[in-house]
Amino acid sequence: MPDLELRADEAGKTAMAGADTTGAGAAVARLDRLALLGIAAELHRRTSLDGPGAYPADEIAEELGSAARHAWIPGHWLAALHDAGLVSRDGEGCYHGLHRPRRAELATARAHMEAAATALGYPSELPAMLLRSLALLPRLLGDEVGVQALLYPDGETATADAVYRDNLISRYLNGAAAQAVRELAGGAGRPLRVLELGAGIGATTADLLPALGGHEVEFYLFTDLSRFFLDTARHRFQAGFLRYELLDIARDLPAQPDKLDLVVAATMAHNAPHAGRLLEQVAALLAPGGHVILVETVLEHPQSLTSMPFALSQRDGLPARHDERAGTTRTYLSREEWLGWLARAGLRVEVDLPRDDDPLAALSQRLLVATR
């Protein structure tokens, strides 16, 4: 393991304050199970899948009263339920034989889910959000409420912090990323120029800003698609070199070729219509020897099925994807796909964490640090 990767790994573990992660895989499975059973229960209540026939996904979406832009989501759920052995699918792609969760089974799954969330370091807001999303499925599908109501109830960020910051895997990844920035920041030979894409609530920013202490910074450009996040960041962060700008990565990145020393993209690059093209654009922005910090989920877990798909729907339905996800309902690229695109963009990977034998790998979230 290269020295930088080793030190980043050690810093990530320190950020977890010695937490026991040996049960991470089992905890993830329990969170996933509760989500799948909750979806199955909803389908039994509201569709013909509780009967003897077999039905295509589009008919199930119609029975559920799905808004046009969310009509792809029930099929996405059914595919996940099929993968988990909870529904059968015939040769024509029609579904039947849906498992019917009993009340006792749901109660047990809920108890296990709450214990699993605690084991993974999630505060109470995370299991509360998962249960709230299950209760709101009819309204979410009907586009009566948006996913923002789940992540930011009453405009508060505590739930989003639980998802993106206040848990073991986020503390590990942000701590490791901060160590990488701390070591790499001195290589520019001039005041640093930093761009963060889709910074959101600043869950990663909060760890990177202290890591820049002791380095001269020309600017740290904090960008997002939503003005809500920019306003939140202005109140949260005080560094004088911070700048704020609305930015849609699906349209245009800042025109600063060969100028930036660091580009940060934490849990957002998968939103690009073409992930590889985004990385090529990022590489073009970096000065020679500049770095990209990429934090990404590399596998969709069922626990996110009641929230994340609703954030991805476009006005005309299925998210526009032009990379390996084209024509599918996949949310994320795999680790191997990200590594391939980084290489094709001329970016050399310096850090790829967590290690394969680390229990945290079960959460399928990774830190990739690469250099132009």
From TrEMBL:
Print the keywords alphabetically.
Methyltransferase, Transferase
Q: Name one GO molecular function term.
A: methyltransferase activity
Sorted alphabetically, the Gene Ontology BP terms of this entry are: methylation
Domain of life, per the record? Answer: Bacteria
Q: Which Gene3D superfamilies match?
A: Vaccinia Virus protein VP39
Tell me which residues make up the Methyltransferase type domain.
Answer: 195-292
What's this protein's name? SAM-dependent methyltransferase
